[in-house]
Input
Amino acid sequence: MQVWSDSRAVEDYKNLLAGKAPADTTDCASVIIGAGKVGTALADMGLGDDVVLRRGDAIPAEITDGEGNARSSFPIYVAVRERDLEAVLKACPDDKRADLVFLQGGCVEPLLKRYGACSKDQTQAVLWWTFEAGSARPIDGEVSLGLDSFGEPKVAGQTSVCGKWAGALKGRLARGGLPCETMFYNDWRRVMFERLIFQSAFNLVGALHGYPTVGYVARYYTQEVDDLIYELGRSLRSTIAVTMLLGIEERLMTYAQEMEDKTPTTMDPEDFEWRNGFFYRHVTTPARRAKFPDPCEQHSLYLEYGRDNGLLTIPELDS
Output
């Protein structure tokens, strides 16, 4: 499927011109699944009437807000690791699935599609946050890059949300002093893949060279990571008809330099499926099976070099 033959590429633009913006929502009593750093931060920014669930707890049909009113419609913030997400999807009642708000850091799109939870109305967020050691207070990662040629501000690391409960999440984060941009789904999807490219490129280069933070990678291996960013972004256009916005290399390099020592590089085997594994499983593997050139050749070579030299432990590469 090519970009120019896919009407979805311009669907949001047509809706904007037609005034078909999604209905706005406001923050309210919510359900939060997960009591880790993200779930705790969301609860702290709420109004004190949220229901916080552990993994495996049943999602209630109704909750009561701070004024004693029963609510049957409310956001359900899913603040669990990617590896735990499928259990939440399986346990969610069908009539509550549209209220799920996905906050995962990696690309969970293939999993959500299997459960019918990836429509343009589903609420999904990219949180460009970091947490200092020992602190549950998120640090926003938005970085200013000055003005573009039209005099509009350019930013990197912009927390973004789309879907039914986008306004509710934006309002909650604003209460906590954290910026958030609401978007149409297709625009948000580009931001999600930009975050994925950041994770995949900087963490892989950092792991192979033994550099502990994304700031070190940006400073000492600029061209290497820049080439990876370009390759991964280009592969999306040719395989799933997603074209990354111009300037992605500048945005990600600036973000990495700004984060400096706040964001360590890591290649956790349990997170591989949701980060570099997306490109290896959904781009490289189908191309190789079809006897086509690998659109992510450098990325694949780096992964296999790391495996062969004992720098990476990724069972999927051996299958």
The chain is about 40% helix and 15% strand.
